[in-house]
Design a protein that fits this description.
Strand 20 and strand 21 form a beta hairpin. The strands form 5 sheets. Strands 3, 4, 5, 7 and 8 form a 5-stranded antiparallel β-sheet that branches. This protein has a 5-stranded antiparallel β-sheet with strand order 10-11-9-13-16, with no helix packed on it. The N and C termini lie far apart (65 Å). It folds into 4 domains: 151 residues, Sandwich (Immunoglobulin-like); 155 residues, Immunoglobulin-like; 76 residues, no CATH class; 63 residues, no CATH class. It has 9 helices and 22 strands. By secondary structure, the chain is of the alpha+beta class.
Amino acid sequence: MRPKIISLIAFALTVILASACMADNKALNVYASTVQYPVPVYDSTVLLEIQFSLKRNEFDFFESEQNPGQWEARIYALAELFGTDGTIYDSASTYFAVSVDEKAKAEMADVRIFNKLQMQVKPGEYRANLTVVDVSSKRTGSFPFENFTVAPVEKEKLSIGGLTLAYNIRFVGEDKGRNYRMVKNGYLVYPSPIGIFSTTDSVMMLYAEAYNLDYLTENPGKYSAIYNVLEKDSSFFIHLGSREKAMGGKTAVLAESFDIKGWPKGYYNLQLIVTDGVSGNIDTALTPFVIMQPISDDQVELIRARLIDPYDELTLEEKIHLVEYLLEPHQKQTLANLTPKGKENYLIQYWKESDTDQSTEQIENRIEMIERFRYANENFSTNAAKDDGWLTSRGRIYVIYGEPAEIDDVQAPRIGNPYQVWYYRYLREGKLFVFEDWSGGSDYRMVHSNVDGEMFDQEWDDYLTKGIQFNNE
């Protein structure tokens, strides 16, 4: 999209949001997800789709002047895509109306509105935000997407795209009807954007696409799809069956319905394995979902937070940085020699084996490490992007040991530069690290520690333990 168009959309949204400040400020509930379609014909870009659902009874319906007896709500939605440095990359928007023939229907609970926005995106690292506005009441709601990766398009190998869990899917062919925006390849898809299903639900549906099948017109061949459900820790839960079908071209559309009636509450992953019967190529995809008792909107946010592991929001580069101070030299060498997918798998296995509490679904020590890593970047970075804090002296110690028990911050010592002493009293015999501001511009570097393997300076040790002043010579 051209910058001029982006600026006009941003201006329009600013006007709407400014009006919203004078209206009811209770936020709309917005449920959304990103889905990628790495269709080979797009060549160097991927179709990024932002699917979202809304609660119909949260919108302000008014009687239509053009169609008396019809009640309408009008909705504006804007998706903005950002680079990891915060620069806006692209945006997409839609303005649409929803109508009912009775005001009472607009107030019915548990009725959803579905829509989606699309952008053509180059491979890279991004974050995004979806904002929805009720044009009549000016109420707004938003859904942020933290860091996610758009992988390059595979032009030769079998690949899976568009994996979507849904409440309902039905084949409509060319008859798209009023919900034409939700039709893809002849299927009307009503997604479950954040993958939450109730114990009262009896069906969960799936839509996906497979690309680069080894199809020949004179000898079409077959492909197969296997569906499994895994526990959140990747252990096997249940096999949902397999399908074998004749190829109709180089791309196949998969639409399935699964009986989930009576399934226990829990966090799961749906696994899809597609095999090309001609070439033997295989690709696998996973998507998380949860089955819960019927819950309130406030509880949905808590569930969503648990579904979205902060580790999944990291780029591969950040995942590697996360273990820089944890891996042994031979482990680092092994990791360096792997392919990107191999690196991902190696790190998954590393954290699984390093889990300090196997009784829980989450890897708590990994979450703690991510929090330390992010804190170090936010507070100790030397660049505007705030992504090198983990490499600094203070950042390294913070990532390894976490928050100090005490910090002695001396900004105006009688002799020398400003310095900080970090004390970790819970470590054996009490450990400390001294960081000195070498240039006077918050360029703190480690100059002393009593930890084995770290820098030791006798003058600093004498000063801290005996009060002996530095030699000025």
